[in-house]
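Protein modeling request. Please complete all fields; requests missing the sequence field cannot be processed.
Requester role: graduate student
Desired output: 3D structure, token encoding
Chains: 1
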Amino acid sequence: MAVNVGAIAVLLISFLVMIMLRFQIAYAVAISSILCLLYQGLPLNIVCQQMVKGISSYSLMAVPFFITMGCLMGSGGISKKLIALANALVGWMTGGMAMVNIVASYFFGGISGSAAADTASLGSILIPMMVDEGYDDDFSTAVTITSSCEGLLVPPSHNMVIYAMCAGGISVGSLFLAGYIPGALLAISLMVGSYIISVKRHYPKGEKFHLKTFAKQLVSSFWALAAIIIVVVGVVGGVFTATESAAVAVIYSLLVSVFIYKGLDWKGVWKTLESCIDILAIVLILIATSSVFGYCLTTLHVPDLASQAIIGLTSNPICIALLLNLILLVLGCIMDMAPIILIATPILLPIAQSIGISPIQFGIMIILNCGIGLLTPPVGGVLFIGSAVGKVKMERLVKATLPFYLCMFVVLLLITFIPEISMALPNAFGN
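Delivered output (431 residues):
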């Protein structure tokens, strides 16, 4: 295997330099790929060919639909419904509003599939409520941003669709099923951390649990939660493909938002669709440019070299698994989620499979790692959104988030070394 060290150096060093100079990630990926091709003397029409190839995928059509569904449901008045449901379920505990925040994120994440949307939508409601009830603003914001990562694991998640495409077309339905238990485990871990802090700081309890109140809120939230059932049951049961279920979910979310919850009028629908287009443009440009970058990595045999390098360091599966997590965590500090999935999956997945980690389990690992990256400086997008929504200085917010980082790392290690956490549901349903 001939190794073009110069081309690899041009590709990776130029990319890292542009990242450090705070280039937009799509520009950094595209320019570094072009420089690599020029260094090798290859024609630049490869750029156009690979960009078109990268987004010419039927399964990828699910991504715009899921994003549109999340935007419509997020703007359609369901946030307050889900908060009321969560409050009826766990608000009675010490630090009840923190628990409500975490559980509401689990519900809302299953609709939006976006940590940023969760933080912006639920945070704008819950953070002021928590502060008014005596919670510290930095703690309230830290709970909001960390619990928002549940939405990345709880289906439907458009990032799972992107990963499935990068991993060679593995079952989206299996990935959807695999996310439920890790998402619940993350929620429980964050609730334990919140409870300990709440007891130490004497945060208040909510009203006592009443089954009648819970049942009433459950009925009120039925139409919002039904969207998840349509998507997940449809895909897992083989009724729809992921793309078809996403399209059906868009129509359903439009009807629920406009006619049932009445959180949107038709003027609001058009505004929401405009914001969807902005998000979609960013995501699709990233996928297209990352396809060129992936082409360069593959033709230069970087995945094989990376695999040999890591295995050369150690043959211990535990150490290799820890190294994979470390690489992903470091990437999360400097890159956004979609580019990490697009670029790192072809390189790291073969290494993970070589030590017995299935593609589905590794998908959950990479998504949680990327979620943690969204909360870490200097590029943590959700961290910045939380700071803006909660009006908390970045330094205070990072300090308040430290205990929750520990909770998330514990869950990450459990997912890494106990495959059954991710694989139990896919195996049970034969996916």
